[in-house]
Design a protein that fits this description.
With about 160 residues, this protein is of the alpha+beta class. The protein has one domain: Lipocalin (Beta Barrel), CATH 2.40.128.710. Helices cover about 25% and strands about 35% of the residues. It has three helices and eight strands. The protein has helices at about 20-35, 80-90, 145-155, and strands spanning about 45-50, 50-55, 60-65, 70-75, 95-105, 110-120, 125-130, 140. Strands 1, 2, 3, 4, 5, 6, 7 and 8 form an eight-stranded antiparallel sheet that branches. The chain starts with 18 loop residues before the first helix and ends with a helix.
């Protein structure tokens, strides 16, 4: 499974939409996003693969007293990624367009764990929210999407 760190993700453009509807959709999406998080996020692209493209909130990378880094990452699903999600988790997820993950990274130990997952529809509605406390640690595999995130928030190994 390869990934790309290029901005060109090869996704098709959305079909024609009247300008008023597009502007309204964008404004409502921003309002819902702001209300859900209380802040405006600065999503920075860092990788893509067959399941979609990945971003992290560059404005809210938190270094905790315990030496951990807490960061939100977003996977914007491709058609293949959405299909895979439905096959694995069921029809409940058929309207999911993106998955936002709150992740903790142990930079010294090169491992990470998920604290929270939120499955969002295309219009920003939360389809499902899952919390993991404390969550199990996973080793960060070299040359993986998680490794690219690790390098972005922890620096080069």
């Amino acid at each position: 499974m390869g990934y790309s760190t290029r901005q060109d993700c090869g996704f098709e453009e959305a079909p024609f939409m009247p300008a008023g509807l597009t502007v309204t959709s964008v404004v409502l999406g921003l309002v819902f996003t702001w209300c859900a998080y209380g802040t405006v996020m600065n999503w920075k692209f860092y990788a893509s693969n067959e399941f979609g493209y990945y971003q992290y909130d560059a404005e809210d990378v938190r270094r905790l007293a315990s030496g951990l880094v807490r960061v939100r990452q977003k996977l914007v699903l491709s058609y293949r990624g959405a299909t895979h999600l439905i096959q694995k988790l069921g029809k409940e997820y058929e309207n999911t367009k993106e998955i936002i993950t709150l992740r903790e990274i142990d930079c010294a130990g090169q491992k990470s764990r998920i604290r929270e997952l939120m499955y969002h529809s295309g219009n920003g509605v939360v389809i499902k929210r899952e919390s993991y406390d404390p969550g199990e640690w996973d080793v960060i595999i070299p040359d993986s999407v998680d490794d690219v995130l690790y390098q972005n928030v922890c620096g080069q190994p």
